[in-house]
Protein 1
Amino acid sequence: MPVAVSTPVTTTGIPHQDVASLKASKPQDVRRLVNLLRKPRTQDQVQLISAHRGLRWGGIAENGKESIRRAALASIPSVEIDIRCTSDGVVVCLHDDGIGRVTNIAEHLGRDDVYSPLTAEGYNPLASSVPWHGVMERLRLKNERGELTDERVLRLADLLDMIRDEKLTMVVFMDMYKRLKVAHGRKQKQATAAAYEVIKSRSDAMGIPALEWCIWKADTVFHRLPADLEQEAWFQDGVSQGLPPLYIPVIDAPTSLEDQLLPLVSAKQWASRSYVVSLEIGLRSPHGPLSDVVHWARQTGHSMGFFAALGDVPNDPAPVEDRMVFHEGHPPMKYDELLRPGTSNDGHDHRGDLALFKRLGFSWVIGEATDPALGTEDMFRGQREAVTRR
C-alpha cells in the first residue's frame, strides 16, 4: 500500500508556515476564546470555526497531531476530536467504533482481510476491544485515501502535551459520539470519566488548566438533562476542585412524538448551568423541528453552534445541496437522503447553508476547515483576529 507522509495540503486562505515558527509564536490566553464561544452572535461577530477532526485531507490523517498543528497554523481557535477508550483504559482520539478504516490493524497483525469502509467488510475490531499497550500503540494512521502515514494513533494525553509544548492556543471539543447502542454507551461513559483523569492534571504553555479549555460534547441521549451529568463521580470531582468540567450539550430532533417537547425543556435546563459553554443544535431546516429551541436561545441571548453539512469530499466544487457524505457500508449519499423521519419539515438538510445559519444567530460552526464554503480569506482573517486580539 502506498505511503503518504508529506503530501502538502492546499487550502484557501491558510498561511503556509512551518512548525518551527508555530513553536516560536507567543501563546494567547485561551480563556478569551472560550468566552467568545459563550457569546451569542452579533451582526459584526466572526462565526468561529472548530476544525472537524482537525485540519485534515490532502494526505493528512484525521484526529492526528499534524491535523491539529495545521489547524493552529491557520489560526483556527478550536478543533473537534473524537474520544474512545482502549480495552486497557487508555484514552485515544478515534472517530469510529471500529479501527479498521483509520489504522493498519489488519496489516499489523498479518491478516489479509483489510477492512473496506465502502463495503464494511474486513477486519474492523472495536477500539474498546483492542489494548493500547502492545497493539494500538504500534499502529499507524491512514489518510482519507486509505494510505498509511507516519502518524501513530493519538492519545489524548499526547495531544494535550503537544498543545502545551508547542505553545498552541486551542480550545478542544471532545465529541463523545451520538446515538449510541447501549453497550457502546457504557464504554463511552467510561471514556468520558477516563478523559477527565487525563485532563485534570494538565495545562497549556501559559499554565491555564486544561479543564478551562477542554470541552466535553455529547448528545442529550448521553446525558439527557444536567442532573444526569452532575451525578457522575468524575464531574463531582471537578466541582470539588473548583473547576467544573466545561460542557456543550448536543440537542437533536426527537425520534418519537412523545418527546417533541423535550429538546426545549432540555435546552432551558442546560443553558442555566454556568459550566455549559454553548448549545449545539441539530437544526436541519429553518422552520422545522428544533426551530423553537433556536428561537428561544436567540431571544434569551444564549450562544449556539452547529455542524456544517458540507460533505466528505475535500474542496468539493459541487453545490452544497449536491455534496456527498460517506456512510459506512453504503455508496456516498446526499445529506437529504440521510435525514431521519421528523427532522426536517421540507425534506432538506440546510446545514450547508452557512449564511442561513448566521442569520439564525449561530455563533460557531464545526466543519471541514479546508472547504471553500468556510475557507475564504475573510473567514480566516477573522479567525486570526479573534485568536490574537487582546
Note: The radius of gyration is 20 Å.
Protein 2
Amino acid sequence: MYYSIGEVAHITGITVSTLRYYDREGMFPDIKRSNGGIRVFSQKEINTLRIIDCLKTAGMSIKEIKEFLGWCQEGDSSLQKRREMFYHRLEEVKKQIDALQNTMNILKYKCWYYDTAIAAGSEDVVKNLSDNEIPEELQEYKV
C-alpha cells in the first residue's frame, strides 16, 4: 500500500514540510515517485519515520540519524558502528542527566532560600545563616 505525503503527515503527526526535509536529507533513499514526480510513501518509509522519531527522542542530530540510517542500509557489517553510536549517546545522556540534577539541586536550594526569607520576613536572615543552619543536603549549592 502506498500513501501520499499528506496521508503520511496525518498518520504520523509529522508535518509535510518536515517530511520533505527528511527526503531532501536522504532519509528515504528508496522512496518511489509517481509519474508526475510526487513522492509515494510505502510502509518502509513509515517505519523509517518511526526510527527517526525514536532517534530524535534520544537526542540524536539529523546528521547522526542520517548516518545511522545509512549504516542500516549496509546490513550486518555495520552492527558494531550502530552499537557504538548508542553507547556514545548513552554517555552523553548520562552527562546531561548529571547536569540537570545539579540544576535541580540549585533550584531546590533557591526555593528553600526564598521560603526561609519569606517566612522570616527578610532576606537578611537567610544571608546571615551559618552553613550548619542550612539543610545539609543543600549546603553545597549555596551561592
Note: The chain has two domains: 1-57, 81-143.
Protein 3
Amino acid sequence: MNLADKISSSKTTPKLIYDVLIENQADGTVKATLLGLPDCQGSGNTEAEAIEQLSQGLQNRLETAKIVTLEIETPKSEHPWLKFAGMHQDNPLFDEVLGYIEEERKLLDAKMEESHAKFSDEIDQEFKELGITNADSIMKAFYLKQRNQSIQTNNNESENLL
C-alpha cells in the first residue's frame, strides 16, 4: 500500500468542530486557545471576541493548508500470554499437578452440589410449613429473593443499632 492510499483528503468542506480553552487574563482580556494546536490563539475584550479572532486565525491558516487523515497500521504484536504456552511441557510433575487440580475441582463441585441440595431442601421444607406443595422453580426463586431481601434489611437494621 502506498502513501497515497493511506492519506485521505476530503473533497467536500465539512464543518470541523474544535475544543477551545477559554482563559480570563489578569488584564481583563480573554484568551481562546485551540486545544491540540496551542500556537493557534485569539484574544479579545470578551469571550466572543476571543473566539472570533481564534476562528479567523484558524481559517486564515487553513487557506494555505489542509487537514488530512492518516491511517497507520498498528504493528503486529505477540499475544502477551503466548510466551507462557508450553512452559511446563517438560516438567515431569505437570501431569500430577493437573491431576490434583482436577481432583480439587471435583471435590469443590461435590460440596457445592451438596450445599445446593441442602438449601433446596430447606426451601421445600419452608414451603411445606406454609402449606405450599406444588411450587415450581420460578416460585422458589421469587421466594428466595424475598427471603434474602428480608435478611439484608434485618442485617442493615442491626448494623444501625450498633
Note: The first helix runs from residue 3 to 6.
Protein 4
Amino acid sequence: MIELIAQNMAPIMFASLILFLLFGYPVAFALAANGLLFFVIGVWLTPYSGGAIHLDWNLLGTMPDRLWGVLSNETLLAIPFFTFMGILLEKSGMAEDLLDTIGQLFGPVRGGLAYAVVIVGALLAATTGVVAASVIAMGLISLPIMLRYGYDRRLASGVIAASGTLAQIIPPSLVLIVMADQLGRSVGDMYKGALIPGLVLTGIYLLYIFVMSIVRPSAVPALPPEARTLGSGVVSLLVLVVLGGAIFYGAHHYLSPIHGNNADILGAAAAVAAMYVIAMADKEGWRFLVKVGVGLCAALIGWALLQAVNSTDLVRTSAMNVRTGVLIAAVFGAAILAFLIYSAVMRILSNVIDFTWHVDQGFGITSRLAQQVVIVLVPPLALVFFVLGTIFLGWATPTEGGAMGAVGALVLSAMKGRLTTEVMKSALASTTRLASFVMFILVGARVFSLTFYGVEGHHWVEHLLTSLPGGQYGFLIVVSILVFFLAFFLDFFELAFIIVPLLAPAAESLGIDLIWFGVILGVNMQTSFMHPPFGFALFYLRSVAPREAYQDRVTGQMVDGIRSSQIYWGAVPFVFIQILMIAVVIAFPQLVMHYKGPVVDVSDMEITIPMGGGDDGLGGFGSLGGLGGSPFGSDAAPGGADAGNSGDAASPGGGLGDLGGPPDFGGPAPDESADTTAGDGSAEAPAADGGMDPLGGPPPGLSAPAN
C-alpha cells in the first residue's frame, strides 16, 4: 500500500491542491502548504517509490535562489506599470469622454450606444489592460443612459460586461504578460499574436449588436434627436478621415523603403498627429499652431544639445541636426499645408451644403462633432502608440513600454486637471495590492513546483495529455474544455500560475507553437470574467448597477433597476461568442502566427564566422539554465534556451514562471579521486551530461542533492 501511494504521489498531490482550493483557502497559501506537506511526505516515502520520487532535504536550500528568481523577474514589472496606468486613466475621465463622444457619433443609428460601448471597451483595453477599470467605468457612465432610452436590460448588461473583458486579450493585457512569462516566450510576440484575434472578437461583438438591431430593434433604440447634444457633422468628419488616410498613404510610401513593415505604425502615427493638429487648430485658431511650432522648436533644440553633449564628432552631429531640423520643419509645414487644403475643401463644400453646425471658435471650418471625436480619440490613440507601437517596433521592452504608459497616464491626468493626491493614493494602493497578490501566488507556486517536479508530476501530466486521441487538435480541444470549466472557480491569475506550466510541456512536445497556445488560453481565460455565476466582470457590474427603481435625473421618470439574473442571462450570448472565437483561433492559427514575420530562405544567406581567438569564458547569457528548468534532469520548462531568441522581452533564462520551471542543478559532483588532467597536462573534456562550466561551478545553493 505504501509503495502504491509513493508511486502515485503526483495525482494525489494535484487532487489535494484542488481540494484546498474548493474549501476556499487562498491560492498562494494552498500552493505553499501543499508543497511543504508533500515534500515532507515525499522524503519519507522516497525509499518505497522505486525511483519515482527525487526529494532530499538539501533541495530546500535552493528555495532562496528560486524565490529571488521570482522577485528579480523584470518582465513582471509590466504588471504594476499597466495597472497604475489603467487606474489613472479611469480617474482622469477618459472613459467618460470617449463614451459621450462616440455615443453621440453612433447615436442616430439603432444600437448606437451599444456600438459605442464596444468600441470604447476596445480602446480602454488597448490603453489600460485592466478589466475592473473598464467594466466599472462603463457601468457607471453608459448603463444609466442605456436604461434611460429603453435598451433591453439583458443586452445592455451583457454588452458592458463583454466589452470590459476585451482588456484580457487586447494588448497590453495583464494576462498576456503572465502567459508569456509562464510559457517562456517574448511578451512582445504574445502581444503581436493576440492583437488580430482581439480585434476580430471586437468585430464579432459589433456584428452581434447589428444582428440584434435587425431582429429586435426595440431592444437597441437610437438616441432621440434631443439627446444628440453635438448635433450632426458627419460630412466634415469624413473629409477629415479621408485627409488622414491620404497622409497615411504618403507617409507609408515614403517610409517603407527605410523602415519596412514598421512603416504601417509610423504612417498611422503621422496621420493621427496631423488630424489632431487640424482639429485643434480649427478649434483654437492660429494660437494653437504657434504653440505647436514653439514646442517643436524647443524639442529640436533640446535634442540637438543632447546629441552634441553625447557625441565627440561635432561636425557629424551638426550635420545630422541640420538634416533632422529640415525634416521636422517639413513635417510641420506639411501639417499646415494639409490644414489649408482642408480649409479650402470645406469652404467649397459650404457653398453646396448648409453648414449649420459650424462653431464660432477658431477658424470655424469643422463641425463640433468632428472636433470632439478627433480631440477625444487622439490622446488614447497616442498612448496606444507609445505603449504598443514602441514594443512592436522593437524600441522598448513591454516593461519599458508600461513605464512610458504610466508616465503618459500621469501627463494626461495632469492635462485634465484631475491628478490629485487622492487619485494618486488610490492608484498606488490598488497597484500595490495587485502586485503583492501576484508575488504571493508566485512564491507559493515556486514551493509547490519544487515538490511537484520531485515526484515527477510533470511527467505524469505530459503522459496524460499527449496520449489523448486527435493529436494537436484533440489536445487543444480537451485543454480548452478543461480551462473553461476551471474558470468557474479560478480567476485568470490562478489559472495562469497553476495550470499553464503543467500544460506547456505537453503542448511543446506535440509541436504546438506556444504563442498560438497562449493566445488560445488567453481567449479561453477571458471567459473566467464572464460566465455565470462566478465571473468577476459580472460582479463588477453588479456593484455599480442600480438594484432598485430610481428617478432619472434627466427625464425625471422612474427607471426600474437591474436584477442579478438579468446580468447573468445577458452575459450568456457573449460566452457563446467567445467559445466561437476559441474555435476560430484553433481552426485558423494564421490569425496568431503572423507574429513570426516572413520566412527567411537560409539558402540565400551568407554567414561569416571570424576565426580569431577568443577568451575562455563561463558561457553566454542563459548558460546557467535560469531558474526555470527542472531540478532533476534535462526536462526543461518550455522556453528554455529557445525562448530568449523569440523576442526582446522573453522571461530571463527560459521563463521565471512558477510551475514551468524549477532550476537546473547541474550534474552530480565530480569524484574527487578522479584525475582532472590528462597525462600531457591538458584538461579532460567534461562529460556529455556534465552540467555547468567547471571554471565557474554552480551558483551557491544550486549544488546537486546529497545522496
Note: Strands lie at 550-551, 558-559.
